[in-house]
User: What shape does this take?
Amino acid sequence: MRDVVVALIDFSQYVVIGYFLVLNTVYLVLLTLAGRTIPHLARRRRLTGVDDLATSPLTPPVSIVTAAYNEEPTIVESVRAMLALRYPRHEVVVVDDGSRDDTFDRLKDAFGLVPLERVIPGEVRSREPARSVHVSTHSVPLTVVRKHNSGRADSLNVGIDLARHPLVCMVDADSLLDEDALLTIAQPFVADPLRVVAAGGVIRPVNDSVVRHGQVLEARIPTRWLPRIQVVEYLRAFLMGRTGWSRLHGLLIISGAFGLYRRDVLVEVGGMDADSIGEDFELVVRMHQHLRDQQRPYRIVFVPEPVCWTEVPDTRAVLASQRRRWHRGLYETLLRHHRMLLRPRYGVIGMLAFPYFVLFELLAPLIEVCGVVIVAVGFALGVISPPMALLFVLAAFGYAVLLSLLALLLDELGLHRYRRLTDLAAVAAAAVLENLGYRQLTAVWRLQGWWASLRNGKPEWGEMTRVGFTSATPLDQGSHATIPETSEPRG
Assistant: This one.
């Protein structure tokens, strides 16, 4: 029996080491592709025509749709920031998803809301229809919809249905957009209006950054280590992962916190899936499948410049809930659309992107946890030699640290969001500390989410405790609020 165990451990160590070498090499390829894109965009920043878009009557109008649930402390500032975005013509549609606090009353007082009899198009179905529609008397393009609580995805469907413009931007109610974010993310639609159907932007943690009147005045690295490490994750996910996949025409995820879509295509696919726990991921995969099945030319792109700032979890309990839900959503979406896997008719999506997400996103936490256990047990039994254990550490963790530091360097050379040397040093330190317990914990949490889905357990949405923004003056200090955690980007 011991010989069998020894042989199994001996074989498994090579499989695990090989897996991490391949995984991190794929990341390196994506980083290389991103490295060819981001500096190019930075050089062309002054020539991209954003100012022309801001004044052109031909710039397609946008409907910003956001679902709000118990957002009383920040909803007014958030809506004002959306209305103040630099864009020639846009409206804001807020769907109050049955809030139990004074979210609607705050909006009513701030914008002079009055009820309006409006015909509901009914082009996108929803479980809970609009109870009432209200518009502002303050000469701002704001529509507020009230409905019974039915979840974020269902509420966004109500907003999509009522949106009047050809482009729909879905934004979380507690997120902050850069002033030119809407102009920048709309550029692909202007440049290629017939083929571009969706575009995603960058999500960055806003914890401890300086915010005033809905604008991030100074980007800072969070003071607590848990959010700091998430800064590293977001850098890798967006600047490395999504920029690289966009270059390959294989982008499968647009963050639910900030994405721009053609409304006609959203209507075609039926809007968001209210039954999906990973509705942002599922929507993009469904769009790929729908358009590929119809053999229509299309593009889904990622734009690495426009930034949406969001508050990330700063406690283990909230972070654990988030990661369980993300992985459960990943598994359920891949399972639902499994027929795309390795099907040539789906091109890069079926032959590269889908297999990547199965092998290196879905299975990654399982391989990582098993790898740590195998190496630890094998080393204790004397089956795995110190050189092999060191090789595992270098392949699984050392390689990952190097990639994180390269992503930070790419961000600094191309976008330069963090201007203080102390911030850069903190991110570099977080890239190392990430591998000393954090990665292992998140792997366990992701496995728990997967296991809950396999058992058909009740979805765990959790609660995200917002601590507010660090304001430029005492008068702008944020408030504490406990709200349901919304969809945020996977790593």
User: Anything to note?
Assistant: Confidence is low (pLDDT under 50) at residues 473-491.
